[in-house]
C-alpha cells in the first residue's frame, strides 16, 4: 500500500497550540482521508506535547483513526528526512503528500527546497503580522497556500491539486529569498 503523508511542523521557537488543535480536528483528519492520505505526522514542539498526548490517549494510543496513522514528536535538529517523506518516491511506495507549516523561514525553505506542496499557517497569537505578510507574499507568487486555523480542511484539496507543480527553490531563483529578506530585513554580504 502506498503512503501519502501530511507532515505538520510548528517549529522550535514559539508554541503554536492552535495549529496542533486544528490538525487533530475530526473534520481535518476526515478531509485528509478523503484525499487519499494515509499518515499524519506532527512535529508538535514542547507546547503541543500535552495536546498530542491527550489525542493519543483518547484514540487508542495512536492507532489508526479515519484510516490514518497518526504520529508525533517534539523537536528534531534536522527536519529534512521528514520533509523528504512528503515527496513522491515510487521505489518506496510514497505518493506526493503535503507539508503544513508555521510561517518560520527555516521550515518554509525546507519545503521549497524539497519541492513539496506547502501550506503556511501564520500564528495569529504573535505580536505583529510579519508571518501573515510573508505567507501572503509567497502565496501570491505561487510558492505556497495560506491556511487559516478555523478553515484548515479547505486547504487539503488545494494542496492536492497543487501536486507536482510545487515550485522548487534554487539560489538562481531570487523571488523567495527576496520576499524573506524584505520581511525579515536580511542582508546579503
Automatic annotation (TrEMBL):
Entries under Pfam families matching the protein: Glyco_tran_28_C
Lineage: Eukaryota, Fungi, Dikarya, Ascomycota, Pezizomycotina
Quaternary structure and interacting proteins, as annotated: Heterodimer with ALG14 to form a functional enzyme.
Localization (cell): Endoplasmic reticulum
Reactions mediated catalytically: an N-acetyl-alpha-D-glucosaminyl-diphospho-di-trans,poly-cis-dolichol + UDP-N-acetyl-alpha-D-glucosamine = an N,N'-diacetylchitobiosyl-diphospho-di-trans,poly-cis-dolichol + UDP + H(+)
This protein's encoding gene: ALG13
SUPFAM superfamilies linked to this entry: UDP-Glycosyltransferase/glycogen phosphorylase
Protein's recorded name: UDP-N-acetylglucosamine transferase subunit ALG13
Gene3D superfamilies per record: Glycogen Phosphorylase B (3.40.50.2000)
Family: Belongs to the glycosyltransferase 28 family.
Keywords of this entry: Endoplasmic reticulum, Glycosyltransferase, Transferase
Top-level EC class as recorded in UniProt: transferase
Keyword RNA-binding (UniProt): no
Coiled coil: none
Role of this protein: Involved in protein N-glycosylation. Essential for the second step of the dolichol-linked oligosaccharide pathway.
Main location per the UniProt record: endoplasmic reticulum
Residues covered by the Glycosyl transferase family 28 C-terminal domain: 6-160
Any one GO molecular function term: N-acetylglucosaminyldiphosphodolichol N-acetylglucosaminyltransferase activity
GO biological process, one term: dolichol-linked oligosaccharide biosynthetic process
InterPro entries: Glyco_trans_28_C (IPR007235), UDP-GlcNAc_transferase (IPR052474)
EC number in record: 2.4.1.141
Cellular component per GO, a single term: UDP-N-acetylglucosamine transferase complex
